[in-house]
Protein 1
Amino acid sequence: MSRARLARSWWWLILGFPFVSLVLVVVGVLLAAQGGLAVFAVPGEDQASIAQDAATLQRGEYLARIGNCAGCHTARGGKELAGGRAFPTDWGVLYSGNLTPDPDTGIGNWSPAQFRHAMTQGVARTGPLYPAFPFQHFQHLDPTDIDAIFAWLRSRPGVVSPRPANTLKGLASWRTALIGWRMLFHRPATLPQAAGRDAAWQRGQYLVEGLGHCAMCHGRRGLFGSQEPALRFAGGRIPQQGWVAPPLDREALARWSRTDLADYLQTGVGRHGSAFGPMAEVVHTSLQYLERDDALAMAAYLLDLPPVRWVPRLDRPPQRARDLVDQASAGLYRQHCADCHGRDGEGEAGAYPPLANNPQVAALDPVNLIRIVLIGAAAPSTRGNPAPHSMPPFGQRLSDAQLLAILNHVRGSFGNDAPAIDRQPLQRVRALPLE
Ligand code: HEC
Ligand code: HEC
Ligand code: HEC
C-alpha cells in the first residue's frame, strides 16, 4: 500500500470511528427504549398450569369479546377465531392468525408464558408482530386477564386453518424490519397513575386504553402506521377504509350524558347518535357484550378525557354551509330525510339519530356524512336493539347537485354550522370502495 493511501485510511478511521460509535449509541438507546433485547427472547413451551375452572373460562370469554379478538381473527365467512382476516395497509395486505387450539395452525402448543409475551410485548415465536395487532394497548392488560383469555381460547374447538401468506411489499414484508419500527415507535408503558380517581374511572381507563384499544381507530396516525400517544383520541381517518373516527373527549362528547353514552356503546343506538360503518362492527362483535358497570365505567373515562384538537391549516376561510341553505334545499330535506330524522333534524330516540347539533354532521372532514348519505346504513343488531332501523342509500337516487344541496342543508341548519361541501369531496367519496 502506498504511503498516501495508508494515510488516507488512517483519516477514514479517525473520522469514521466517532461516527460509527455515535450510530451504535443511538441504536443501543433506541433498542433499550423499545424494551431491550430481552423482548425478542420468547419464553419456552413449558405448559405451566393456569386456572381453567368454569368461572375463569366465562371471564376469559367476556374479556375476549371486549378485546374483540373474534372481530379481527375471523375471516369473512370463516370459522370464528380461525384467523385469516385481511388487513389492507398502505404496504399491502396482512393476515391475522388462527387463535383456535389447533396444534399446527393455531395456538394449541403455545405456553401461557408465550401467549402473555405476545400480548404484552408484541413478539411471538415467529418474531415481532405487526402493529395491526393492538399489542401497544394490550400491554396494559393484567396477567390474570390474559391467562383467562388464553384458557378460554384453549377451551374452544380447534380449527385447522393455515394463515394466508401476507402480500406486503418491500421493507414491510420483512418481519425483522419491525425491530426498526419498534425502535422508532414502540415504547413499553404502564397506564398513568390514577391517584384520586374512583374505581369506575380506573376500570374505564383499563377498558378504553387497554383491552378496548379504542385509539386504534380514534387516534391520529403518524409515519408508518404509528400512533401518536398525545393524539390518541384526536380522531382521524381510518387508514384504507375512508371512514373518519371522531375525536373522543369531554368536549367532543359534551352532548352525551354518562348513561346515554353507555347505552350507545352497548346497543349501538343512543339519544345523540347511532353507530355506523366500522363502529357498527365494533359494537356488533364486541361492545354489545359489555356488562352495564363496564359500559358506565368506559363512559365515565371518555367523558373525562381532556380535549386535544388537531386542526388542519386552511388556505382561506371556507364558505359556510348556512349561506347555501334556501327554500330548495329545505324542500329536498323535507322530501328525502325528514320522515325519519324529523323536520328540524330532531330524530327519534332509539330509532333515528338526530341531525341537529350533531358533530358527525358538522365534522370538518365530511366523509362520514357524505358516505352514509350515498350508501345508506344499518345500525348494528345487538342484544339491546335486536331489530335496528336502517337508512336507504341516496347515491343513485339523487343527482350530485341535489345531494350537495341536502348535505349543505344539514351542515348549515338545526344548530350545525360547518364549512360547505363542494363537488370535489363528493366525488372523492363516490370513488371509495363500498366496504
Ligand atoms: C385490530 C385487530 C386485532 C384485534 C382486536 C386482535 N388482534 Fe390479534 N392479531 C391481529 C393481527 C393483524 C395479527 C397478526 C400480526 C402479525 O402477523 O404480525 C394478530 C396476531 C395475534 C397473535 C400472534 C399470533 C398470530 O396469530 O399471529 C396473538 C396471540 C393474538 N393476535 C391474540 C389476540 C387476542 C387474544 C385478541 C383479543 C384479546 C386479539 N389478538 C385481538 C389483529 C388483531
Ligand atoms: C374499527 C375502528 C373503531 C374502533 C376500534 C372504535 N371506534 Fe368508535 N367510531 C369509529 C367510527 C368510524 C365512528 C364514526 C361513526 C359512528 O358514529 O358510528 C365511531 C364513533 C364512535 C362514537 C360516537 C361519537 C359521537 O360523538 O357520535 C363513540 C362514543 C365511540 N366511537 C367510542 C368508541 C370506543 C369507546 C371504542 C373502544 C371500545 C371505539 N369507539 C372503538 C370507529 C371505531
Ligand atoms: C328511512 C329512514 C331514513 C331516511 C329517509 C334517512 N335516514 Fe339518515 N339515518 C337513518 C338511520 C336508521 C340511521 C342510523 C344508521 C346507523 O346507525 O347505521 C341514520 C343515520 C344518519 C346519519 C348519521 C348520524 C349519526 O351521528 O349517527 C346521518 C348524517 C344521516 N342519517 C343523514 C341523513 C340524510 C341527510 C338523509 C336524507 C338524504 C337521511 N339521513 C335519510 C334513517 C334514515
Protein 2
Amino acid sequence: MSDYIHCPNCDDRLHPFGKVNQAEAAHINEELEVRDGHGWWRCENRTPEGRCLWVQPRWHQAKGFSLPESFR
Ligand SMILES: [Zn+2]
C-alpha cells in the first residue's frame, strides 16, 4: 500500500510513501518516546545513496525526521 506525499528530503515531486516496518517503528517509538511509530510512513524514493530515510505520521510532516543511516 503506497500513497504519494511530498518529502522534504527529496525533490518537489510527490513520492510514494509506505507504512514503516517493525524495526523502523521500534526506532521511532524509542527515539521520540512515542507509541504510534507503527502508524508512521516512510518515503520509498530511491536516491543514488539508497533508500530515502524520511519518516512521518501520515498527516503530520512537521513531526517527521530522518532515520539514521543504518536504515538505508
Ligand atoms: Zn524522500
